[in-house]
Amino acid sequence: MSKSYSPTWRVISVIVLRPLLTLLIRNKWSGTENIPKKGGVIFAPNHLSYVDWGTDALFFQANGRYPTFLIKDGAFKVKGIGPFLRKAGQLEVHRGRADAGLVLKEAEKRLAEGAAVIFYPEGTATRDPELWPMVAKTGVARLALTSGAPVIPIAHWGTHDILPYGSKKLKLFPRKTVRTVAGKPVDLSAWAGQHTSARALRAATEAIMGSVTALVADLRAEEPPALPWDPNTSSRTVPGSTSTAHPAVAAEAVVTPEAVVAPEAVVTPEVVVAPEVVVAPDPVVLPDTAAADEAKPEVTGQ
Is the whole model's pTM more than 0.70, yes or no? Predict the structure, then answer.
């Protein structure tokens, strides 16, 4: 058992948060059989709202795992909250600093101690206009391939109704429903031992996000976009690509020419003219040598 936290403070957080979140939010869960009861594990949820951490924490706690979140350092600077987060064993992420990657080392250590690490692959709430998971960072894949810990994809839907991204106004009433589901472990065996390869990290990240997106699609009962939203280009692009084409435009560019050109290729004029070449009029008028000069105007008329 990890000693990098205070058991007392963790108990307090459960006693306070569980009844509060249960009272304010209607939670519906599924896939709980996919949550390992012990051992180091990485949970990779989609990110819709700043409320996500609360409903996710409740989901994991109620299913036997106390969550260890990777949280932006700004939260640790808030008076009263920062000390609590540290005592509860949460991990502080320093963005924009040379030692930002050190949190992955600490997370790897926690996993070895049997912790349940919650890692939001997107790094922040999705910027997709339709709220689908966007292109993720490769940190979650790096941690998984380095530690060997299983990755469980998590999807939730409904937290954006309580606190939309960019808003500071909670919408608790009428009581909202948040649905959360855990999927089966993502198979990353194809990239085992390749945690230093940028290509392998990107491919493994896409595999993880593909599983997360599929779970979100099930919750929404909708078909996800063909390509994820890339916050770097503000468009739907292939992860790692420099192309900024929107998938809808790309689809039209491909389908439209095929639909128009294909029929024309079948009834091309050359196919019609070919028989005229075979039944050329010269062999027909050849015996009439006297009318040779008159045959040409007739042929031209045909």
Answer: yes
